Every structure is written in structure tokens, then in C-alpha cells.
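We read letters as residues; the fold follows as C-alpha cells. Both lines appear below.
***
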Amino acid sequence: MPETTARTASAAAPTEPDPYALRAEDVREAPTTFTGRLRHLGPGFVLSAAVVGSGELIVTTSLGARAGFVLLWLVVISTGVKVWVQMELARWTILNGRTALEGYREVGPRIGPVSWINWLWIGMDFAKMFQRGGIIGGTAAACSVMWPVTGEALSYRSLAVWTVVVTALAVVLLRTGKYNVVEQLCVASVVIFTVATVALALGLPLTEFGYGTGELGEGFSFLIPAGTAGVALAMFGITGVGADEMTTYTYWCIEKGYARWTGPDDGTEERARRAEGWLKVMRLDVAAGWLVCTLCTLSFYVIGAAVLHPQKLVPEGNSMITTLSRIYTDTMGPWAEYLFLIGAFTVLFSTLVGSTASVPRLWTNTLGLLGVIDWHDVRVRRRTIQILTWCLPAVWASFFLFVQSPVLMVQIGGIGGGVFLLAVVIAAWRLRSTGVEKRFRGSPWLTVALAVSSAAIVFLGVYGVLDVFGISLTGS
């Protein structure tokens, strides 16, 4: 493949190797023990920090508040089925040393220099700008409630000031664009919000908002109540690993070193064994990220269903933060509001950090595929990523200041992600058949899991889209 050859021959930066170049001198043997593999995890936690935020805190809790426990089954499916597609894309990336967006270009038909899937990603990312603006708005609202700039915590002026501060903070933290900085920030956030959220959900039975086997049984009746399909589609698009996070994960796998340590495909048995070893590390990394996402998503949904639903409290508009704070104040007393606000800031800001780190990489790669820049020129790539790291968050912030409805903005992004997810499933199967040798495809049960995952994504995605546009599948 000429593109792989070009990348293999790409000149590295003088001070550190180019993570996107495959060179024989950078190969490293994969760990053979479970403990050794644990030491090389990282991309999955970066992904978890980006995922657990807008989807879990805002949309999942809102859905629990609207529907009660009845959609708990969708939470389990949403977090469980997508990881197999994520794993398939990552497998292709590690074996070929190329990003998901480059892989999508191979799935025809092409429209100009790129594939229809690349163009769909561009359209989806514009919808995602609303979601990221909602994340900034939610983070700003949490700060504004704690430290209002004016007498009214959620006044436009106070929100505007904190929007600027939050956006600037994310940009400054990621100004270098280095993967290690991103990983350290995300791992710290993941530990904090996972422990806090799971502890609160498990502690609810000890309060007046307790739940039991009856509520949990109702949650697996496999029904979608009338009026909740739009929110359900948004939750399915956002919670767990979304289509854009699956795409981003391939970049983190490359920058962590999985592809570079595997090395260029020279056809040797040594390279094949290295590849198998680093694929095992990747699978463990995916499992660790899935565990975090599942625990947090279930916790947020149960909290919304148990605390907010009985009181008919649904997070909406800029009052989302104060409504969500009732989860804590109603169960532990007024003093717990600040505990919630700190937790909300951690969850939402970690998602903003993940987006600020990943989206400039995706757009830089897209500009390279369109021929606007030379993606393989290390200095051009890094400079473009840094410029977009400064510019894109400001655009997202302006979206929030214009719309000022975090819940609605996150749902818009979720629907866009749900539609794009269908295209990613097609790409995963195509790349599997053309770029992954049978030796590396894993056991037959992994293929079955991918097939079931793909079928569930297609069914729920199509169902949700038709329902949103008022087209009944039953004909009634």
C-alpha cells in the first residue's frame, strides 16, 4: 500500500519519533503477562474521560428522569454493543499504522478525494459542535453556581464569563498537544468521577429514594415508552463509545505506541507475533475503558430514575445543573450541592479536555486527506493541530452562548453521532475484509460478537431515526 510506505519512510522529528510513522528502529516486544499489559493501558481511559460527561451526566440522567427505570436495558446495550466495532477499527489501525479516517476513505464510493463516510463525518462533526458547546455550557453553569459573577448564578453575564474561563483553561492545558499530557489529565478525572458516581448510586437504597429488584426488573422489559425515542436515540449515540470516539480511539492507539511498537509489515513471523501481542494489550485497554463507561452510565441512569423521576424533575435549559444537583441535595442534604458541583465540573471538564485534544487531530487528518495540508509532514501536522486546539473550542463556546440549552445541544450531537455510527459499522466490516489477515481476526466468537453488535446498532439506529421523523415501524 503506497500510503503505508509513505508513512514508513516519513522523517521523524529530531527530538522524538513521529507516532504516525512506522520504523523498524521503533519496534518493541509486547508484554506477555497480565500485569505487564496493565502497565501499557491508556487510550481506553482517555476515551472514557471523553465519553463519560455529556452522555452520562446530561443525557442518561435526563432519560432516567423522563422514563424511570424502564429504559435501563438500553443503557446496557448501548455501552456493551459498540466496543466490538471500536475494537475492530483499532485492530485495523495497529496492523496498518493508519488512522480510521484514512480507512474510511477506502470505503467507496468516493466523492472527490475522500469517501462518502469522510463527508458524513464532516457533517456529523458540525452537529457535534452543538454537543461540545453544551459541555462547555454545563461546565460553566457548575462554576457559575459555585462562584456567580453577578447576583444571579445563571445570568447570561455570569455564564458568559465562566464560558470564556473554562474554554481558555482547556486550551492552555492542552497547548502542547502531547499525548502524555492528555492521558495524565484523563486518568485522574476517570478515577475521581467513577468512584463518586458509583458510590452515590449504590448508596441510594439507604435513602428515601431507594430502589429494589422490582424497579430493576422493570428496567429490562425491553420497551421504549412513547415520547422518549428522541432522547433514547441521543443516548444510544452518545453513551458508551460513540462513532466519533471509536474513530478517535485509533489516533490514541497510534500515539500511545501500539502501532509504532508493532512496526512496519515486513512479512516476518517476528512482526506477526509482535502484532498479536500488542493486539492483546489493545483488547485489555478496550475492556478497561468499557468497564468504566458501563459503571458510570448505569449509575447516572439509576440516579436519574430513582431520584428525579418520582419528583417529575427533568434537567432542561441552563437550569440543568441546579436540577441535577437535586440528586445530591435531596439524598444527603443542602450541604451536598457543592459536592455535586465539583463532581459535575470534573465529569464535564474531562469530556471537554478529551474533545479539545481529539477533534483538532481529526480535522487536521481530514485537511490532509483533502489535500489542504501534508499530514505526513510532522511540523505541519503539529502546527495545524495546535492552531485548531486554540480555535475550535472558541467556536463551540460561541454555539453555547447563542443557543444556551446544554441538554438540547447535547441531544443534537447525539443524534448526529447515532446516524454516523451506522456508517462506521459498514467501514469496520469493509476494513476487516480488506486490511486484516485471518490470523489476526481472533476467535470465531469475536466475529459473532461483532455481528451481533453491528445488527443491534443498525436496528436501534434505524428505529430511532424513523421514530424521530414520525415514521412508525408498526404502521399505526
The chain has 20 helices and two strands. Residues 77 and 337 are 32 Å apart (CA to CA).
